[in-house]
Amino acid sequence: MNYFIGIYEFFSTRIGAGIRLCCALLCILVLCGLHGCGAQRASPVQSTRAPVAAKKVLESAYSQIGARYKSGGDSPGKGFDCSGFVQWAYKQQGIAVPRVTTDQARAGRLVAPREGLQPADILVFKSRRGPRGLHTGLYAGDGQFIHSPRTGERVRTESLEAAYWKKTLIGARRLIK
């Protein structure tokens, strides 16, 4: 504590009020920055109980948070549409997944959406009328999923408890046991 008093006295006698304020703000920023040093936050992937392959699929998916949406996109360079994103995340682990949502909605085995979802399960949403009005994403655990939503948006996580997603979720598919 005496150290801080000494610093205050030095600055209060040597420099003007504006510079003192700037120095105080700088000290606060440095202390705030140091507060997190050495602390590691567990990623959502690490905290789940899931098969290793499922965790790796999710790690790939999380690495693309913020990637832009692109209709027909299936790579980080191009951007992703929803099914291209799901396919890409699985492909990084050597697991083949169909490219389009209607085929993804039939891949693997059916899982009841409200019963026992596991990380990396493909979630299927009915987003529009017609046979192709589907949207897919990946279940991330703890009621969250990761997806590439739509034009003008970026890959992100969302809650399955949000009214829209709760209303439109029609199924889930499991590719990893």
Question: How would you characterize the overall build of this protein?
Answer:
The chain has about 180 residues and is an alpha+beta fold. It contains six helices and eight strands. The strands form two sheets. A six-stranded antiparallel sheet has the order 3-8-4-5-6-7. Strands 1-2 form a two-stranded antiparallel sheet. A hairpin with a 7-residue loop joins strand 4 and strand 5. Helix 3 crosses helix 4. The N and C termini lie far apart (about 55 Å).
The oligomerization state is single chain
How much of the sequence is in beta strands?
A: 15-25%
Which strands sit side by side, in order, in the main sheet? Answer: 3-8-4-5-6-7
User: How many helical elements?
Assistant: 6
Rg measurement, Å? 23 Å
Mean pLDDT: 81
For this structure, what is the CATH class of the largest domain? Answer: Alpha Beta
Beta strand count: 8
Helical content band: 25-40%
What is the terminal separation in angstroms? 57 Å
